[in-house]
Amino acid sequence: MHRQVQVNDMMPTYIDVYEFGSGSPKIAITGGIHGNEVSGIHICKKLVEYFEENPPLKGSVVVLPICNPIAFRQMERANSFDRKDMNRSFPGSAQGSYTERLAHAVMELTKDADMIIDLHNCGQNSQSYTLAVYSEYPKTRKLADLLNIPALVHSGGASGQLFIEACKRGQAALIIEMPNGPGPGAINRQSTKQGWDGVMNALRHEGFVSGDCIQNEVHAFGPIKHVTAAENGLWKPAIKSGDWAKAGETTGTLNGNPILAPADCYALTARPKSYIACGEFVVAYLVKAE
Ligand SMILES: [Zn+2]
């Protein structure tokens, strides 16, 4: 079922809501909280097509493809009305600023879901990862394991994010971050497929969708850390995003001087060969939490 929910009265804005099936369990999948993060929007639109043909075998599936429609139209992270980061605006307020009203509406539309998967894009040189407060909220760890995305990153838990506020109200909620495409509105096909496969695997496991669930290894990591440049210059990577590095291994060189891995780690992002400024990161890395 498709309906449109009006969010604001002075600048009327409508959020498309697609709901398939009824009752519990219920899963909500959200895209476009950041308007220029199109992989999640694309996955949501494919989910709508899928469930229009194949209604859920049990429970209900709610899909919100574009939670921040004006930001999407402007192909910006935030909309131009108040320029607030929507994913710092949850739980929002019905009487708040434009973005706070959007956040409030999304919070309401997802309130009776058992699980929420919120889809986002990260930088195009990164690997995909799942972001969750998995140690404090064990249900999110179970959900993350179903996504088959190798890197599960521990979130700092900053409030105002949909998945954090949803966890606080007892839901299993997390983010999938996928590298974006090479320009505004561009889709990275590989990472979008990875996100789609992960969501579908979770849907299969929970019985919404037919087929066998597969289980690949998911590594639980601490928060994202960065190796930064100590001077301006030319960075040449020796590793690539998705590589594992041993402590002391060369990750690349800056002006010909090696920069070593500070720990046994997974390179979430290895910056490509670039001229960079002092203080910029050259490698974003993850250290195993267990
Ligand atoms: Zn985002």
Entry summary:
With 290 residues, this protein is an alpha/beta fold. It contains six helices and 17 strands.
What does this molecule look like?
With 290 residues, the chain is α/β, with parallel strands linked by helices. The protein has 2 domains: 2-219, Zn peptidases (Aminopeptidase); 224-286, RNA polymerase II/Efflux pump adaptor protein, barrel-sandwich hybrid domain (OB fold (Dihydrolipoamide Acetyltransferase, E2P)). The protein contains 6 helices and 17 strands. A 9-stranded mixed sheet has the order 1-2-4-3-5-8-6-7-9, with helices on both faces. Helix 1 (38-53) packs across helix 6 (189-205). The longest helix is centred in the last third of the chain and has 17 residues, at 189-205. The radius of gyration is 20 Å and the shape is globular. The N and C termini lie far apart (43 Å). The relative contact order is 0.14. The mean pLDDT is 96. It binds zinc ion (ZN). Zinc ion binds next to loops.
Compile the SSE list and pairings.
Elements: E1 2-8, E2 13-21, E3 26-30, H1 38-53, E4 60-64, H2 69-73, H3 98-109, E5 115-122, E6 129-132, H4 138-147, E7 151-154, H5 162-168, E8 172-179, H6 189-205, E9 219-221, E10 225-228, E11 233-237, E12 244-245, E13 250-254, E14 257-260, E15 265-270, E16 274-276, E17 281-286
Parallel strand pairs: 3-4, 3-5, 5-8, 6-7, 7-9
Antiparallel strand pairs: 1-2, 2-4, 6-8, 10-17, 11-13, 11-16, 12-15, 13-14, 15-17
The structure holds zinc ion (ZN).
